[in-house]
Specification:
Structural class: alpha+beta
Strand order of the largest sheet: 1-2
Number of strands: 6
Largest sheet: 2 strands, antiparallel
Order of helices and strands: EEEEHHHEEH
Strand content: 15-25%
Helix content: 40-55%
Length: 131
Amino acid sequence: MLELKKANLARTGTTIKLRWRDGVFVRDDDGPRQLLVSEEDERVIAEVESAFNARMPLSAHPQAGGRWLGQWIMTARRKSRKAAKAVVDRLIARGKLVDVEYDLHRHRSGLCTPEQAEKFARERAAMKRTG
């Protein structure tokens, strides 16, 4: 269970059921399906999907420099650093974006949607089985 303990713009005590599946946390099927997403957030999610599909995932961490999703938000969406960080943190907290380790050898992680994470986990598991 992931529980929201404190937030400025959300109800505290909100919980999301998660299950560990093939190396990533995914939303449990009986949990709430959708939390409202703004048009602005949809654009950010679309950029994350596109970058992950291009095998150049954006990062959730400011230390990643140019790979940090917040950097893209600051440039493309013309937001302050504080506002960009808030967008990244909110989308992760709501389960709209997840951080997956995509390069095991270099221990690199990147952002993607929960659907992309599930597909990635299935593909990784299939690769392990085949050798």
